[in-house]
Amino acid sequence: MLLRRLEYLVALARERHFARAAAACHVSQPSLSAAIRRLEHELGVPIVRRGRRYEGLTPEGEVVLAWAHRILAERDALHQELSALRDGLTGTLRLGIIPTVVPVAALLTGPFCDRHPHARVAMESLSSLDIRRGLAEYELDAAMTYLDDGEPRQVRRYPLYEERYVLLTPVGGPLGDAAGATWSEAAALPLCLLGPRMRNRRIIDECFAAEGAAPVPAVESDSVAGLYAHLPGGRWSSVISHAWLHMFGVPPGMRVVPLAGPAHGPRVGLVVARSEPPSVLAQALVKVARQTRLRDALDSLLTAHLDGHG
């Protein structure tokens, strides 16, 4: 019963609404409210600040919520480990991925599913901030994201590859037959780029700025797919991460041109919560990542495109 009440508390904190939390837990609102009150009585502290509607948690409630996340995560880890001993790995791997890494996710999830056919993957495209929160609150088992100093310390990092930036430009355009291009030359082209809220775009803007350039894109997109949708037809160019070539390749009538200067970006890696015991599903994904050699696969793909064989 304690675990059930902790589940109700987690749902209430997530939904911030008694009726929605009850619906998420498939119980009536009075049942959920009564369970929360019993939890408060058992622990001897007020957990929920109550008014005419849900108003948040008390300081004591925030402490209880943190323990609830931890206890429920350890319960799930126990089930996973026992299931793996009995039937092989089962359960659902909850994987958060920043949008610009989605094009290469299948290079990990595919081998993972091949190796563990009874396990499932629930993949969600999230911002870096949402990934941090999901790992901290045990709502995610693992994430594919940028590895930088902004990541919390309570995670384990496993590098996968470094982003490499190249120019994707029409064959008949000003740089269509160039052996290479500078960032300043790329900035002068009609460009389609990701929007300024995207981390990838901010990194690319820093590369332009290093050469004193400030691109003014004609089109901005909040997704890689939206960006690529504008490239066929020979009107716009784009600066892309080489990893996107895995899913989208080179549109007809375009070619990949190397960029001189700061062509290497930050590291992309697998991140898992530093929990004890560790998630069996997350550790299985880490094992797959170590054997996949993602960096080599993407570098070979880029070389093939640069050599005109892609």
- What series of H and E elements makes up the topology? HHHEEHEHEHEEHEHEHEHEEHH
Q: State the share of residues found in helices, binned by percent.
A: 40-55%
Strand content: 15-25%
Find the structural class using helix and strand composition: alpha/beta
Number of separate helices: 12
Radius of gyration: 24 Å
List segments where confidence is low: pLDDT < 50 over at least 5 consecutive residues.
Answer: none
User: What sort of overall outline do the alpha carbons produce when their principal axes are compared?
Assistant: elongated
What average pLDDT do the residues reach? 88
Main β sheet profile: 7 strands, mixed
Kindly report how far apart the N and C termini lie. 58 Å
In total, how many beta strands? 11
Characterise the protein shown here.
With 310 residues, this protein is an alpha/beta fold. The protein is built from twelve helices and eleven strands. Strands 3, 4, 5, 6, 9, 10 and 11 form a seven-stranded mixed β-sheet that branches. It has a two-stranded antiparallel sheet with strand order 1-2. The protein has a two-stranded parallel ribbon with strand order 7-8. The termini are far apart.
